[in-house]
Give the backbone structure.
Amino acid sequence: MKKINNAFLKNYTTYKLEGKLACIYFPENVKELADLILKLNEENKKYKILGNGSNLIISSSYNGVLIKLEKFDKLDIDGNLVTVGSGYMLPKLALMCANENLSGLEFASGIPATIGGAIYQNAGAYGEAMDKIIKSVTVLDDHGNIKVLNKEKLQLGYRDSILKHENLICLEVVLELKQDSYENIKCRMHNNLLNRKEKQPLEYPSAGSVFRNPPGYSAGKLIEDAGLKGFKVGDAMVSLKHANFIVNMGRASGDDVLKLIKIIQKKVKEKTGILFETEQEVLE
Ligand SMILES: Cc1cc2nc3c(=O)[nH]c(=O)nc-3n(C[C@H](O)[C@H](O)[C@H](O)COP(=O)(O)OP(=O)(O)OC[C@H]3O[C@@H](n4cnc5c(N)ncnc54)[C@H](O)[C@@H]3O)c2cc1C
């Protein structure tokens, strides 16, 4: 199995973070993955599946290994049913489905996730999310067992799924989409992408929204009202365009991003009494 030691984090995180990772494994198939999980569990080694690294902040203290499922890239389209491997990229899938006149993934074209990461997080935008189109997910548990979970068993909620709570690895997903014309689908995708470009700092590396919106509030507005737009720790900066984004202006590390997050949480708490929860996941 391919394995990279001392991997540069900037190649594996959309934040393009400074620093290195001890090791990334690249299993070729389910058997290699299952054997690896069992071995790591036996050795009591910490591990995490790496999707596209678009929701991850990795600190210098993280001493686990990562496992990248880029070889899990099967795609099979049969009528309205799409079976796709967990390592497949979501924007590419949205395009492939549009080409087949299949609608349901228009919201996803600007989300730089893998399918596995999108299921784990129930990724969504514009009032849509993965839960609207999932039929079932094949997972591997940490004892090496394979199970097929239907939509109900996945406990999909706001940026949440059972994968987060039961250490399950997504192997493959079946989506159920609807027929529509290519023109209609492309038009919705185009409008969503324009909207993102206008509101989000896509010109800099980031990992999307940093904090969850507290009920009834916009996290970005609260950060802006706290006067934090443009505030920096090292090269990690609160975006001038959208205050709920932290952008990497050059050589930011995961530790810089984490320090900035703590400062934002403290300042907003002092001003409003609201404690922000991060939407991004921290590996430390
Ligand atoms: C510019 C930009 C815009 C964004 N916009 C949105 C948006 O509109 N909506 C939204 O919801 N998110 C958005 N995000 C955040 C991010 O893309 C999502 O959270 C996405 O779901 C993360 O997927 P990933 O493959 O990059 O996962 P990673 O960041 O690599 O990992 C995130 C978590 O998923 C787990 N994971 C990954 N693959 C698997 C698997 N196969 N099995 C089990 N667990 C797995 C990882 O272990 C980790 O815990 C945006 C990010 C960026 C950079």
Q: What stands out?
A: The chain has a mean pLDDT of 97. The chain has three domains: 2-68, 75-199, 219-283. The chain is about 25% helix and 25% strand.
